[in-house]
Design brief:
The chain has 112 residues and is α+β, with helices and mostly antiparallel strands. The protein is built from five helices and three strands. The longest helix is centred in the C-terminal third of the chain and has 31 residues, at 78-108. The termini are far apart. Residues 1-93 form the HTH arsR-type domain. Pfam families: HTH_20 (PF12840). Keywords: DNA-binding, Transcription, Transcription regulation. This is Metalloregulator ArsR/SmtB family transcription factor.
């Protein structure tokens, strides 16, 4: 594994609800860790650990502005997740179509 390899993959990173929430929080804006921490009932250290996992997966970038570290979303790694989910959409579509047919047939089979 080379130095540029990610320590966490996108799937591991988004597995935690707090990290998914952090991604949503950073969608439209870059924020310092102090501001981010104010949105959560956990310690700043815990928020920083979650941000580190997201950064290791390439989902957030950090930059220093004076003494402050700011974070912003890097959405490109989410494309891997999108591609993976797209493969399974056909199964969901088939199941939803079958359910729709079942419901429609049940509704037209006559009432008592």
């Amino acid at each position: 594994m080379n130095a540029s390899s990610q320590k966490h993959d996108v799937f591991q990173a988004i597995a935690d609800p707090t990290r998914r929430s952090l991604i949503r929080l950073l969608v439209d804006q870059e924020m310092p860790v102090t501001a981010i921490s104010g949105h959560y009932p956990i310690s700043r250290t815990a928020v920083s650990k979650h941000l580190r996992v997201l950064a290791d997966a390439g989902l957030v970038k950090e930059r220093k502005v004076g003494r402050e570290t700011r974070y912003r979303l890097e959405p490109e790694p989410l494309l891997e997740l999108k591609r993976w989910l797209a493969y399974y959409e056909r199964y969901w579509d088939n199941k939803l179509t079958a359910l729709q047919r079942y419901v429609e047939e049940d509704g037209t089979s006559g009432d008592n």
